[in-house]
Design brief:
With 115 residues, the chain is α+β, with helices and mostly antiparallel strands. The chain contains 3 helices and 8 strands; from the N terminus they run βαβαβαβββββ. Helix content is 23%, strand content 37%. The protein has a 3-stranded antiparallel beta sheet with strand order 1-4-8. Strands 3-6-5 form a 3-stranded antiparallel beta sheet.
């Protein structure tokens, strides 16, 4: 199984659970849902989610995603997974709370194993 990760506000995930479909804001504005590999998630969180709280990490089984997944080169020749279309919630096999530490930075939760 290939696991990809997505950081989302808790309220967005709770809304998705009632419909079975998750649609991030980026899907509407950029045409895809941003995701990360385990090795990328901390860098992504500290860059884009600095002042946010009540975040979750969705662990997604890429083999169960019904929409297209592309690994796009984003920065420094690093390929990030993007889901082109809505995410079916049954592809999410685990949800982990993602809170900043006392120093204000995010760290990889122990429940996530590096690739």
């Amino acid at each position: 199984m290939n696991t990809i990760l997505h950081i989302t506000p808790r309220q967005d995930w709770e809304k998705a659970q009632s419909t079975g479909i998750y649609r991030a804001d980026s899907l509407e504005t950029e045409g895809f849902i941003h995701c990360s590999t385990p090795a990328q998630v901390v860098k992504t969180a500290n860059l884009w989610f600095k002042n946010q709280s009540d975040l979750l990490i969705l662990l997604i089984n890429s083999e169960k995603v019904e929409s297209e997944i592309r690994y796009d080169i984003v920065r420094k020749n690093e390929a990030f997974p993007h889901i082109y279309g809505a995410l079916n919630t049954d592809a999410v096999f685990k949800v982990i709370e993602f809170n900043r530490r006392e120093n204000g930075l995010f760290e990889l939760p122990a429940e996530i194993q590096l690739e």
